[in-house]
UniProtKB/TrEMBL annotation:
EC number, UniProt record: 1.16.1.5
Species name: Entamoeba invadens IP1
Pfam families, per database record: Fer4_10, PFOR_II, POR, POR_N
Protein name: Pyruvate-flavodoxin oxidoreductase, putative
PANTHER family: PYRUVATE-FLAVODOXIN OXIDOREDUCTASE-RELATED (PTHR32154:SF0)
GO terms assigned for molecular function: 4 iron, 4 sulfur cluster binding; metal ion binding; oxidoreductase activity, acting on the aldehyde or oxo group of donors
Lineage top rank: taxon: Eukaryota
Claim: Protein transport is one of the keywords in the record: no
Any one biological process term the GO annotation gives: response to oxidative stress
UniProt entry keywords in alphabetical sequence: 4Fe-4S, Electron transport, Iron, Iron-sulfur, Metal-binding, Oxidoreductase, Pyruvate, Transport
Annotated InterPro entries: 4Fe4S_Fe-S-bd (IPR017896), 4Fe4S_Fe_S_CS (IPR017900), PFOR_II (IPR033412), Pyruvate:ferred/Flavod_OxRd (IPR050722), Pyrv/ketoisovalerate_OxRed_cat (IPR019752), Pyrv_Fd/Flavodoxin_OxRdtase_N (IPR002880), Pyrv_flavodox_OxRed_cen (IPR002869), THDP-binding (IPR029061)
Length: 1108
């Protein structure tokens, strides 16, 4: 038995039973590919006696195309994907199925994303592709995921049809369970060798030439498609035979449809996926009184082809009503796929049974025992129940939802524990792997979308009997809180009465716990222990507690002693409850922050899910105890501390020298202007990353514990928020005093990405339309409740949109074309006015002159902005003439509003590179910021074409030998694009110049920023020093290429970095991603020498071009 999650269970089977695998990272399927790549890199042999070829592709489209080609040349290929990744595959899926080829896609199912994007699971992705001809198998536990992965390979070879195996992504895929596995020889023994050899012999080969696929006309296509019917008709029996053969080998029994519960049931539930475990738990003998009805569950294993005959065999003859559970939504359809399939089957069998559909679980919404009980009760007793209804939400718009008892809770195992904190530490696996062989275990991990300050919750179950439940723990015996970042979470929401809360802090932590947590302590009589604990201590305690013991003593138990203190704190918290004058925040976001997002009603959602900007300013989580302290006497006003701050929590504020300020708000007279200034931190938003301190050359910033003057800094920040915006920005010092229109972004500590976007908003934020690619860019700035783009004092600021990872350049290009067109309409009407004597006379000389001036300077954003301040009030006064009315309609385009695409490595170098290439070839003025971390950061640090040679990354566990893509050179070769390489952390002045030049350039502009990342494997508290080192040693060259200079006889290339001799060795020593290059053998030395020579050649070429 191995303690593994669903994704790793699938990976083990897929590796051993495949010849080839073609992968691309997408959450939550990514870890399947990671495991397979590591096995391949370690030369593990598959069941055929070979090392499986595991190749990373540029996109899911490339992956499935390679699967197609591989299958057609005799291999058994696989790929793994989720969500939008799967939706890139259907054209090839149709071909694979139409050509009757064996292949397997494993899908960690996930919501596709419509009005918003989510990584959590439902079945909208897989069920959107059901017409492709792939056969569908679904599993609901890690053990089933392993078993059904095996069945897929058995069946795909036997049936000569492709199979898609899916499971709930962040539920089953990341759930830990003890899984019984087979040896590769045992797996090989399960497949049909004759059918395998038949497939191998059918491969395309010049020794047996054939043509595949022919171009067909309307006289043959229909017949060719119908010719495959017999293959699909055989599939249900083939799959059942595979199940039977598997049972003979393992003892684990499955059927195409499995029946659980009463065989004489009157209410029949038909479902698939992880919800089935929760239903089965309710249908146990001991829960019959609770259920109160004769109920059965038919669990669907084979979704497609859907066997009418086998379903009808399973439906009890006593059935009066059926309810079908569908975890997807097809807007406008008369019911979802499983419901339609069941209705069709009953009609074909001429059975007259009332069928209802319950839509549930979209976007990963929990399905609890209480909800299932409500469904059963309503199906059995409510004759007015709508045919199609929902559960788990309050639909006060279309009134489809069923109510349920939210106070009803249920245990899912003998011992249940919740652990908050320990992000990135496999604490659940450590605990569960320490249990006895006889104990059943289960582990779930839940997160929110906050990167650094987010909720991290581990649910663990340990029991003496099989654990069926697949719902989140509702009655925990004990809750551990191991990190202070979790204090904002209502950590006791799911604790049982008289349960235990263990806090790894001193007893003063009561002050920082949420109001709801404190109220629960009293309401549920929770025993509270305070004891500083390591993760190892927590492991030991959980293992003790599962047997009813613990090592806490009365010295740790403060519950009784502090009961009065808790009551007093509750009273104070109620009296000083945070009041925010923002309706969206108080009505929507605050509920989400307090763990009550599930209680929001349908009417609370804005159609299209448009959200206001600037919500991150209210999201105060006080992540770090150490914050920057400013030494007023040491400061030389270089302003770098504020420029490099990734979260915009360290800012510089300026006032007239005579402006009064509070005594504690100390300010220093500037030597660079007639004003005084102060460096002020927001202590509730600071990430403690040390970027400000390490960037300060005068050592005026130091990181200190915040306890001593925390309240004073909160007051100072509050006063700073009343200081008017600074308008000048001709120097880096002046720019730093401009309000960033991207603030408190949802970033990792020390992240290098958002500093570039923040700088752009300080320069042009009032006129930016931002297309943020899916990934770190969108998660950092566009999570509900944490929207980081904000407005200036006049209500203007960047507006935000997000499409996909693979198409952000085309998405932004569409914006740019539309914005340009709208401005041209304005220009047309302004020209009409200034060239028409009557119209000029009607609007007056002053207005006409301003319009003429605007036509001259309109492409200069700052000058156009100055004229707008004069034009707009005059324009409002004029109320006649058609052209004037049209000008008023498009008046916002007097400002130079521009589209900005913000993309990362995946969108620039890999899956979206075609879009970059296409935009570069055109002459539309789209501006692009490329944040280059040299990996796919948001998926967890996966190999990209931006990854440097020799670096370790996921999908390149032994270090990549692929050539690094030089995107800047490719773009420069067009000769028509502005291109710059920058690094804000190393040289903010050069970055500022590049952004200004890019914005002014008449055509496509690309500014590529090197960004440090946690996946570079070094301490990001040293991010500034490392960034400077990379530039100083020639690893990252700073330059600007402006082709407009060629027209005036000036060299278009300016090399801004001073390094001329590359030294790669300090980078190798500092960053563990290059640890394999530290080996002292001759082969490694030659590799390092080769890499450094390539870097030197690139630098020499740049130097040469500057002299041409």
């Amino acid at each position: 038995m191995s303690l593994i999650d669903g994704c790793h269970a699938v990976a083990q089977v897929a590796y051993y039973m495949s010849d080839t695998q073609f992968i691309f990272p997408i959450s939550p399927a990514t870890s399947i590919g990671e495991t397979c790549e590591e096995m391949s890199a370690s030369h593990v042999k598959n069941m055929y006696g070979n090392v499986t070829s595991v190749i990373e592709m540029e996109s899911e489209l490339g992956s499935i195309a390679s699967v197609h080609g591989s299958a057609l040349t005799g291999a058994i290929p696989s790929t793994f994907t989720s969500s939008q990744g799967l939706l890139l595959m259907p054209p090839n899926m149709f071909k694979i199925a139409g050509e009757l080829l064996p292949a397997v896609i494993h899908v960690a199912s996930r919501n596709i994303g419509a009005s918003g994007m989510t990584v959590f699971c439902d079945n909208t992705d897989v069920l959107s592709c059901r017409s492709t001809g792939f056969c569908y198998l679904t599993s609901n536990t890690p053990q089933e995921s392993y078993d059904f992965a095996v069945i897929c390979y058995m069946a795909t070879i036997e049936a000569s049809l492709p199979f898609l195996h899916f499971f709930d992504g962040f539920k089953t895929g990341y759930a830990l369970q003890k899984v019984s596995t087979l040896e590769p020889n045992d797996l090989f023994g399960l497949i049909n060798k004759k059918q395998l050899e038949k497939h191998r012999q059918r491969r395309l080969s010049p020794h047996n030439p054939t043509t595949q696929t022919l171009i067909q006309c309307n006289d043959t296509t229909f017949q060719a498609m119908e010719r495959t019917n017999e293959y699909y008709n055989r599939v249900p029996e083939i799959v059942q035979n595979c199940f039977n053969k598997f049972e003979e080998k393992t003892g684990r029994k499955y059927n195409v449809f499995d029946l659980f519960g009463d065989t004489d049931a009157e209410v029949c539930i038909i479902a698939f996926g992880s919800v089935c475990g929760t239903i089965r738990n309710l249908l146990l003998e001991e829960n019959k009184k609770l259920v109160g009805e004769k109920v059965c569950l038919i669990e669907v294993r084979l979704i497609l082809p859907f066997s009418v005959e086998k379903l009808i065999e399973k439906i009890p003859k006593t059935t009066k009503k059926i309810v079908v559970l569908d975890k997807t939504k097809e807007p406008g359809a008369n019911g979802e796929p499983l419901y339609q399939a069941v209705c069709s089957a009953l009609n074909e069998a001429d059975m007259r049974i009332k069928v209802h559909e319950c839509r549930y679980g979209l976007g990963g919404k929990e399905m609890t025992p209480s909800m299932i009980l409500s469904i059963i009760k309503n199906i059995a007793e409510n004759n007015k129940l709508k045919t199609i209804f929902t559960i788990g939400i309050d639909d006060d718009v279309t009134h489809l939802s069923l109510s349920y008892d939210s106070n009803f809770t249920m245990k899912g195992a003998d011992f249940e524990v919740i652990i908050y904190g320990v992000s990135g530490v496999p604490i659940s696996k450590t605990i569960l792997s320490s249990t006895t062989k006889e104990e059943y275990v289960q582990g779930f991990k839940m997160i929110d979308m906050a990167k650094e300050a987010g909720m991290v919750r581990n649910d663990l179950r340990i029991s003496k009997r099989e654990i069926l439940s697949q719902f989140e723990i509702e009655e925990a015996d004990v809750v551990f809180v191991l990190e202070r970042t979790q204090y904002f979470v209502p950590v006791l929401k799911d604790i049982k009465k008289n349960g235990i809360l263990v806090i790894s802090e001193d007893c003063e932590s009561f002050q920082q716990l949420s109001l709801e947590t404190l109220e629960t302590v009293l309401r549920k009589n929770v025993r509270v222990f305070f004891k500083k604990m390591t993760t190892e201590d927590c492991v030991k305690e959980v293992l003790k507690m599962r047997t009813g013991n613990h090592s806490f003593d009365e010295a740790d138990y403060k519950g009784g002693m502090y009961k009065q203190k808790i009551e007093k704190i509750i009273e104070e918290k109620r009296a000083h409850k945070k009041v925010v004058n923002d309706k969206y925040y108080t009505d929507i976001v605050l509920k989400i922050e307090n763990g009550h997002g599930n209680e929001l009603k349908v009417s609370d959602m804005v159609p299209g899910f448009y959200c206001p900007t600037g919500q991150s300013q209210f999201n105060k989580r006080r992540v770090n105890k150490r914050i920057p302290h400013w030494d007023i006497n040491m400061c030389q006003q270089c302003s770098t501390c504020s420029i490099v701050c990734p979260s915009s929590s360290s800012r510089i504020f300026a006032l007239d020298v005579d402006h009064p300020v509070p005594d504690e708000f100390k300010m220093k007279n500037s030597t660079k202007g007639n004003y005084k200034y102060r460096v002020q931190v927001s202590p509730e938003d600071c990430m403690g990353c040390n970027s400000c301190a390490s960037s300060c050359k005068s050592k005026a910033i130091t990181m200190l514990e915040d306890d001593d003057n925390y309240e004073e800094q909160v007051r100072n920040w509050k006063f700073a928020m009343t200081i008017p915006d600074f308008e000048k920005k001709s120097t880096i010092e002046e720019l730093a005093m401009n309000k960033p229109l991207l603030e408190f972004a949802n970033v990792c500590t020390g992240c290098g990405e958002m500093a570039s976007v923040k700088m752009a908003t300080q320069l042009f934020g009032k006129r930016m339309v931002c297309a943020m690619t899916s990934g770190c860019s969108s998660v950092s700035s566009g999570v509900i409740g944490m929207t980081a783009f904000t407005k200036d004092a006049n209500g203007r600021g960047p507006t935000y949109g997000n499409s996909l990872l693979e198409d952000n350049m085309e998405y932004a290009f569409g914006m740019a074309v539309s914005l340009h067109q709208n401005r041209e309409i304005l220009v047309k009407h302004v020209n009409t006015i200034v060239n028409n004597k009557t119209l000029r006379s009607n609007i007056g000389k002053e207005f006409a002159k301003l319009l003429e001036e605007w036509l001259v300077v309109k492409e200069d954003g700052d000058k156009a902005e100055e004229l707008c301040a004069k034009i707009e009030p005059l324009l409002k006064e004029i109320k006649s003439e058609e052209d004037i009315v049209e000008v008023q309609k498009y008046a916002e385009y007097f400002h130079k509003i521009e589209a900005w695409s913000v993309i990362g490595d995946g969108a620039a170098f890999d899956i979206g590179t075609a879009g970059v290439d296409h935009v570069a070839s055109l002459h539309v003025g789209l501006k692009t910021i490329i944040n280059n971390t040299q990996v796919f950061s948001n998926t967890g640090g996966h190999h990209s074409k931006a990854t440097p040679e020799g670096a370790i990354s996921k999908f390149a566990s032994k270090g990549t030998d692929a050539v690094q893509k030089d995107l800047a050179s490719i773009l420069i070769n067009y000769g028509t694009c502005y291109v710059a390489q920058c690094c804000v952390q190393a040289n903010p002045e050069q970055a500022m110049k590049a952004l200004i030049e890019a914005e002014r350039f008449n055509g496509p502009a690309f500014v590529i920023f090197y960004c440090v990342c946690v996946d570079h494997k070094f301490d990001l508290h040293n991010a500034i020093e490392e960034s400077r080192l990379l530039v100083q040693n020639g690893y990252w060259n700073l330059f600007r290429y402006d082709p407009s200079k060629k027209g005036v006889g000036v060299n278009p290339l300016t090399l801004d970095s001073e390094c001329r001799i590359v030294d790669f060795s300090p980078v190798i020593m500092n960053e563990d991603r290059f640890s394999l290059l530290r080996n002292d053998d001759d082969k490694t030395k030659q590799l390092v020498k080769g890499i450094q020579n390539k870097m030197q050649e690139k630098l020499d070429e740049l130097v040469k071009q500057t002299k041409n």
